[in-house]
Amino acid sequence: MERSSIVKSTILVVGIAVVLVLAGLAFQSAPSDAVAEKATPPTSTTTTEPPPEGVVIVRIDNGSFRPSNLKLDLNEVWIVKWVNEDPREYILADKDDRFETVLAPGDEFEFDYSTLEPGIYRVNATVGFQRIPGTIDTRPEQ
Fold first, then answer.
1. Which stretch of 21-25, 45-49, 110-114, 117-121 has the lowest confidence by average pLDDT?
2. How far, rounded to the nearest angstrom, does the alpha carbon of residue 137 sit from its chain's CA centroid?
3. How far apart are the first and last CA of the chain?
4. 85 in a domain, yes or no?
5. What is the pLDDT of residue 12?
6. CATH number of the domain that 78 lies in?
7. Using an 8 Å Cβ cutoff, are 48 and 114 in contact?
8. What pLDDT sits at residue 53?
9. What is the domain count for the chain?
């Protein structure tokens, strides 16, 4: 191989690598400046108070729902409250477009499942390209 063709090949490979690195940086997900300013750790991550009657709490923490799959007895619990305890902002949405909301760190959102027919409802929280799946099962025991 001639020296000039080796130099041209090397320049081409380096150029492609630079373009790929820059493209990767352009598509990284990061919180907005406003969210980053508000992203202070909570003073306490535990609570001594139980949730109000009829409410179950789902925490978003460390990139996951806790718990991720719920079985609700609508005679006892009918409201699900999501609490974002993660330092990132999430978009919380129901698969069938019943709700969609932005949860900044520390934000909460409630949905009343007693207004729907018993069934399995899928929800997810997204941040960038990461999607956290979850289910709410309100079917009676069979």
1. 45-49
2. 19
3. 75
4. yes
5. 74
6. 2.60.40.420
7. no
8. 75
9. 1
Domain contains 58:
yes
Q: Is residue 7 part of a domain?
A: no
Give the domain range for residue 99. Answer: 33-137
d(CA 56, CA 79) in angstroms, rounded, equals 6
pLDDT, position 77 = 86
Q: What is the DSSP string of the chain?
A: --HHHHHHHHHHHHHHHHHHHHHHHHT-----HHHHHH----S-S--SSPPPTTEEEEEEETTEEESSEEE--TTT--EEEEEE-SSS-EEEEETTSS-EEEE-TT-EEEEEGGGS-SSEEEEEEEETTEEEEEEEE-PPP-
Q: Which pLDDT tens digit goes with each residue over 63-105? A: 999 999 999 988 888 899 999 999 999 999 999 999 999 999 9
- CA–CA dist 41, 86 (Å, integer): 9
